[in-house]
Design goal:
This protein is mainly α. It has five helices and no strands.
């Protein structure tokens, strides 16, 4: 395997290039086990604004389940629409995955 930044041959089991410190695919594939999911709008799996997908990622469940529950709250109780709008306004936007991985690599 070769480093995509400097081109030096590196071992398959290495997470970072020893010459330039660039993360390999192994480093990007392994997530930090101590990092908890952040409640944020999910830009990758969104249907309208990413609120339901963000809650699903935070809770560790399927996004379809959250969408069904949210629709039931919206149609049944009526406060689901207001809760969705409030969540849309208050939840921060999610950083793209490539940027988040690059920021993490720069920090460590």
């Amino acid at each position: 395997m070769f480093c995509t930044r400097c081109g030096i041959a590196i071992d398959e089991k290495v997470r970072y290039c020893s010459a330039c410190g660039h993360p390999t695919k192994l480093a990007e594939a392994t997530a930090n086990p101590y990092a908890s999911p952040r409640l944020a709008l999910d830009a990758e799996n969104k249907k309208i604004a990413g609120v339901c997908a963000g809650f699903a990622r935070y809770l560790g469940v399927e996004a379809l389940l959250i969408r069904i529950v949210w629709l039931a709250l919206a149609l049944g109780a009526g406060f689901g629409f207001f809760a969705y709008l409030i969540a849309w306004i208050l939840m921060p936007k999610d950083a793209p995955r490539a940027t988040a991985a690059a920021d993490y690599a720069r920090q460590n």
